[in-house]
Design brief:
The structure is a single chain. It contains 10 helices and 10 strands. It starts with a strand and ends in a 20-residue tail after the last helix. The chain has 335 residues and is α/β, with parallel strands linked by helices. It has 2 domains: 133 residues, Nucleotidyltransferase, domain 5 (2-Layer Sandwich), CATH 3.30.420.40; 168 residues, ATPase, nucleotide binding domain (Nucleotidyltransferase, domain 5). β4, α2 and β5 form a beta-alpha-beta unit. The strands form 2 sheets. The protein has a 5-stranded mixed sheet, sandwiched between helices. Strands 8-7-6-9-10 form a 5-stranded mixed sheet, sandwiched between helices. Helix content is 42%, strand content 19%. Bound molecules: 5'-O-[(R)-(carboxyoxy)(hydroxy)phosphoryl]adenosine and zinc ion (ZN). Zinc ion (ZN) binds next to α3. The site of zinc ion has 5 residues, from α3.
């Protein structure tokens, strides 16, 4: 079955094609329009999606070596995300389905991130999933795919947002995560220490606003010259605090749910230090750690198509009346 996936929930316009369960193309256009603003500007994002959606879909189809009329199913992101951005991909996908008379499947962006771990490999359930991106930091117990129990989530900023804001504060560019990752590689993570919040909270929630506040206080008290000349050590310290907070909470969840498989996905899962510490955790505990290749950590349509295949096999198609849902939970705590 030839399946087209479309993702436009934030600032990546992406289309991907699967042929009988194998990914054969995945085109991601990352909008550069937002760089000068240090964050995503929703109106610019929707306009950029409108400009890019046709060329991106065309490229995905031609790289797959198929033609549009061969496509048998289309999946697109319904939410959560920026409403204007979501509407572009979703309306485009539904219109194509109507015109081609093929089924449509609407998908949840967080669940799609979880399914990025299934693009190239199998994952056994029950599993734990840590979703860490610019907009989300949440931990789920997955008894089986399609069923998610929210164990904890951030009470304030997402992990990626904390790195993005740090980078913006220092004028290092957007998105901040990859910049911090690159510069921190040259630094000593133990020279400057930043708080690891909520580790003793007795639950599995996260908090990153404390790190952000202490970073701003540190920058203000040390002065620009000191910060500039010690940048790699400072960024390595900040990154270490974010990574430790994530890994420690994951370890706490693993103590309660000693599963064989753990999934770590979302843009921050691209972080080299996080990947290093997760590999150590996996080795020490003998647990299978599923972290997608870096290209599938940040937003992409491959994960959307992969989830659409699963949902179509399970529930059939979605109605074309389905609209964008900017705030959409995968599961409420206690579900
Ligand atoms: O999953 P994603 O593309 O979009 C959301 O759904 O939010 O994640 C984007 C986030 C941004 O905060 C970005 O700074 C972060 O992922 N990110 C990274 C790295 N690459 C992207 N954070 C840390 N290290 C990286 N290498
Ligand atoms: Zn995302």
């Amino acid at each position: 079955m030839l399946v087209l996936g479309i993702e436009t929930s934030c600032d990546e316009t992406s289309a991907a094609v699967f042929n009988d369960g194998t990914l054969i193309s995945n085109i991601v256009y990352s909008q550069s329009e937002h760089r000068r603003y240090g964050g995503v500007v929703p109106e610019l994002a929707s306009r950029a999606h409108i400009r890019r959606i046709v060329p991106v879909v065309d490229e995905a189809i031609s790289e797959a070596g198929v033609s549009l009329s061969d496509i048998e199913l289309i999946g697109a992101t319904v939410g959560p995300g920026l409403v204007g951005s979501l509407l572009v991909g979703l309306t485009f996908a539904k219109t194509l389905c109507f015109a081609l008379d093929i089924p449509f499947v609407g998908v949840n962006h967080i669940e799609a991130h979880i399914f990025s771990s299934l693009v190239y490999e199998d994952v056994s359930t029950p599993a734990l999933a840590l979703v860490v991106s610019g907009g989300h930091t949440e931990l789920h117990f997955i008894p089986e795919f399609g069923v998610y129990r929210l164990l904890g989530k951030t009470r304030d900023d997402a992990a990626g947002e904390c790195l993005d804001k740090t980078s913006k504060f220092l004028g290092l560019g957007y998105p901040g995560g990859p910049v911090v990752d690159r510069i921190a590689k040259e630094g000593d993570p133990d020279r400057f220490s930043f708080p690891r919040a909520m580790l003793e909270s007795g639950d599995l929630d996260f908090s990153f606003s404390g790190i952000k506040t202490s970073v701003i206080e540190f920058f203000t008290s040390c002065g620009e010259d000191f910060v500039r000349s010690n940048l790699p050590d400072i960024l390595a310290g900040i990154q270490e605090a974010v990574v430790d907070s994530l890994v420690e909470k994951l370890k706490q969840a693993y103590k309660i749910y000693p599963v064989s498989d753990i999934i770590v996905v979302g843009g921050v899962a691209a972080n080299s230090r996080l990947r290093e510490k997760l590999a150590r955790f996996s080795e020490a505990e003998g647990v299978r750690m599923h972290i997608p290749p870096v290209s599938l950590c940040t937003d992409n349509a491959a994960m959307v198509a992969r989830l659409a295949i699963f949902l179509f096999e399970r529930n059939g198609s979605s109605p074309l009346s389905l609209s964008a849902v900017p705030r959409l939970d995968l599961a409420q705590k206690g579900d």
